[in-house]
Amino acid sequence: MVLLLAVVGLAGCSQGEGLLSAEASGIRVNLSNQQEGIWVSGSGKVMAVPDVATLSLGIEAQDDSVALAQSQAAEAMNKVKATLTGNGVAEKDIQTRYFNVQRITRWDQDKQLEIVIGYRVTNMVTAKIRELDKVGTIIDAVAVAGGDLTRIDNIGFSVEDPSAYYEEAREKAMADARNKAQQMAELAGVKLGKPTYINESSQYPQPVYRQDFYAETAAAPAVETSISPGEMEISLNVQVTYSILAD
Description:
The protein is 28% helix and 42% strand. By secondary structure, it is α+β, with helices and mostly antiparallel strands.
C-alpha cells in the first residue's frame, strides 16, 4: 500500500516542468529530454611552426664477448653525448630510451644447433634540440663522434608550448559550431538560443617525423645535412548544444 501511494504521488506531479519532486525526502529527479535543442560539432585547425627537434640516435657495437661490446658502446656513447652537450644540447634534454644486450647466433649444420658467435650492445637515446638552425650540424657531428657504431633512427619536430595555438584553434572551433547551428536553426524555422552544453576534445600533436637516418661511416659529409622543420597541424574539436528559443 505504501509503495502504491508513492507511485501515485509521483505520477501526479507536473510533467510540463520535466521535474518530479518528493518534498518529504528532498529528492529532485530530472526527467527532461536531454536531446532537446540543436546539437552540433565544430572543428578548428591552425598551422604551427615547430620550435623543438627530437633526434633519436645511439650506438650499436658488436664483438665476441659482452664485455668488449659493452666497452666499445660505452666509449662511443660518451663521445656522442659530449658532442651533443658541446653543441648546446642540455643534459636534461638527453634521455636513454633503449638499452639492449643481445646474443648473436648462427645455425651449425654439423652439430644441428645454434651456436653463439658474438654479442651486440645497443644504446639509444633521444636528444631535444632547441636551436633548429643547428640540427644539421649536430647530426653531422654525432656521426663523426660515434664513427661506424653510430645509429641515427629519425628526427621529429614539435611545439614546446602549444597553448597559444590551441586558443586560436578553439576560437575557430566554436565559430564553426555556431555557424552550423545558426544554419540549422534557419533551415528548421526556429530561433537559436544560447549554448547549454559544451565539450572539447583535443589531442596533443605528436612529433612530425621528416626523415630516417642510418649513419655508417665516420667521415663527415662534404655538405652539411639539410633539415627542414616545416609546419605541423594542431586541431581541436568541440561539441555544442544550443537551446531553441520559444516564439
